[in-house]
Amino acid sequence: MSNMHRIRWFDQQIREGNYPNSSRLAEQFEISRRQAQRDIEYLEYSLRAPLQYIAQKRGYGYEDKTYVLPLLYMTEEEKKVLKFLAFRYRQYDYENAPVVTRIAHLLDRFTDEEDSDSCGRLPVFEANPLLLQNFELLTRAIRERRVVHIAYNDQAETARLRIWPLRLVSRYNADYVVSYCERQRKELVLRLDGIGQAAVTEETFEYTAVEAAEENKASGKKPFVAKVLLAEPCKGASWNGFPIRPVDGLVYAVEFYDADSFLQHLLVSEWRRLLAPKWLQERLSVKCRSALDRLNTNESEE
């Protein structure tokens, strides 16, 4: 339901001397108190209503009884445009950032939509079916941390990539998905209109491992490399978030920066032998002996 329906009801309640407030508005239309307060602010600041809160009545009235609610109607398409403009204002990096932020907030208040998803979903309108579908797929993949296979059109060539979508952004009048590419082992910024096809897999990725790798790469720190004999071939260029490459048969080289995190990974993963480095073998052995000692202690106490 449009917020104009709620505002008209609120205006009518004031004129009838019922002194409405945000609680009554929320109860009447089964919305949140936050949304109700936003509606009241919209009436006061955007529609210039001379609202006055009367403490004795615990509700609102008009200071100027001659105020008339303007006949304002906005289509869903126009709301999407305003929402999109607000999104773009927030994305651009201006020197007068506080002013731009206020403009974005003002544009947002012209619509009655709730806050956008935490995954950073982009507003979409007047788009072709394929673009709409890819928006939906990538939004879900970001939220659920799913690996995605895409066909990406880069100039005259079409590349098939296996990516970990991280977030959606808007830059320079175009929309992009920031992703980690397993094959290239780095972050890529891909134009959404360059994605021909997208398929979300059932595989998940560990975003924290990607972040750590990127931060260490930026600082120039070289990763440690472990040689591990796996129980079965590894599919893809990562082993539960750790970059991996084949060496010989089922022997793989696995890169990591934090030894404790990697040891924890070894304790819960399927593998046959840790071949190198020796210092990592010793630390894993100590960790396992410590766990066995605690287990034996518990058994003896029983």
Describe the 3D structure.
It comes from Paenibacillus hemerocallicola. This protein has 302 residues and is an alpha+beta fold. The protein has four domains: 3-62, Arc Repressor Mutant, subunit A (Orthogonal Bundle); 76-109; 129-205, SH3 type barrels (Roll); 208-299, no CATH class. It contains nine helices and twelve strands. The strands form three sheets. Strands 6-5-4-3-7 form a five-stranded antiparallel beta sheet, with helices on both faces. A five-stranded antiparallel beta sheet has the order 9-10-11-8-12. Strand 1 (51-54) and strand 2 form a beta hairpin. Helix 4 packs antiparallel against helix 5 (97-109). The longest helix has 24 residues, at 278-301. Mean pLDDT is 78; it is low at 114-118.
What percent of residues adopt helix (DSSP H or I)? Answer: 40-55%
Number of domains in the coordinates?
Answer: 4
CA-to-CA gap between the ends?
A: 65 Å
Biggest β-sheet: count, sense, barrel?
Answer: 5 strands, antiparallel
Summarize this structure briefly.
This is WYL domain-containing protein. This protein is an alpha+beta fold.
Note the main attributes of this structure.
302 residues; alpha+beta; Arc Repressor Mutant, subunit A; SH3 type barrels; 4 domains; five-stranded antiparallel β-sheet; 9 helices; 42% helix; 27% strand
Topology readout:
Layout (H helix, E strand, L loop, with lengths): L2 H13 L6 H8 L3 H14 L4 E4 L4 E4 L13 H16 L5 H13 L19 H16 L1 E9 L2 E15 L2 E8 L4 E6 L3 E10 L2 H13 L4 E6 L8 E2 L2 E7 L2 E6 L2 H10 L4 E4 L1 H24 L1
Antiparallel strand pairs: 1-2, 3-4, 3-7, 4-5, 5-6, 8-11, 8-12, 9-10, 10-11
Pfam families: WYL
Protein name: WYL domain-containing protein
Organism: Paenibacillus hemerocallicola
